[in-house]
Amino acid sequence: MRAMIHQMFGIALREEQMTQYDYMTYGVTEEQLGRVFRLFNTEVCRTLKVVQGAKAAMQQLAGRYEIALVTSRNPESKASTEYWLKAKGLPYDQLHFDDDKHALGIPYHAFIEDRHEHAHLIAETGATVYLLTRPWNAAPLAHPNVRRVHSWSEILDHLL
Question: What is the pTM of this model?
Fold first, then answer.
């Protein structure tokens, strides 16, 4: 997203400066963000790299758990997301597009998240949430079911 925003609008955003998830906080307009997301949903998400350690970890977890992927992405990205998951060989049993991840009624054993707000709402359902540390989720943890982790290998240490 940051690379797209820079390429399309000349706004340079480094990951470490992104202490909030909202791009408009950093001078990106709603109209610009809409243009970025339209392109992302149909084309760019097909070309994303897999986060380091995620593929191997998901393959190990698939042997023990049912994997439900729940994303806040726009449902318009469904075809591109499914293509990407298949092309990258990422295992999953269910795929959901919903910003209200906590309200889907899925009995999560564990949930891996990178948004502070989502992590705490999901933790309220009783699930243990592993919050992958990123600059935009550095706020203090406010729920005992949320555990900060730094890598997929650390997640595996907890779940296997």
Answer: 0.90
Alpha-carbon separation of residue 144 from 115, 129, 147 (angstroms): 16, 9, 8
Q: Where are the beta strands (DSSP E) in the chain?
A: 68-71, 94-97, 110-113, 128-132, 146-149
Q: What is the dihedral of CA 80, 76, 45, 158, to 10 degrees?
A: -90
Distances (CA, A) of 108 to 62, 102, 157: 14, 9, 18
Q: Give CA–CA dist 85/112, Å, rounded.
A: 17
**Tokens standing for 139?**
């706020």
Task: Enter the tokens of residue 108.
Answer: 């999560």
Q: What percent of the chain has pLDDT over 90?
A: 94
114 pLDDT band, cuts 50/70/90, is very high
Task: Provide the mean pLDDT of the chain.
Answer: 95
Average pLDDT over residues 71-84: 95
Domains and CATH numbers, the chain: 2-42 (no CATH), 50-159 (3.40.50.1000)
In 3D space, the residue among 93, 9, 97 whose CA is nearest the CA of residue 45 turns out to be 97
Tokens 């729940």, residue? 70
Confidence category of residue 8, pLDDT binned at 50, 70, 90: very high
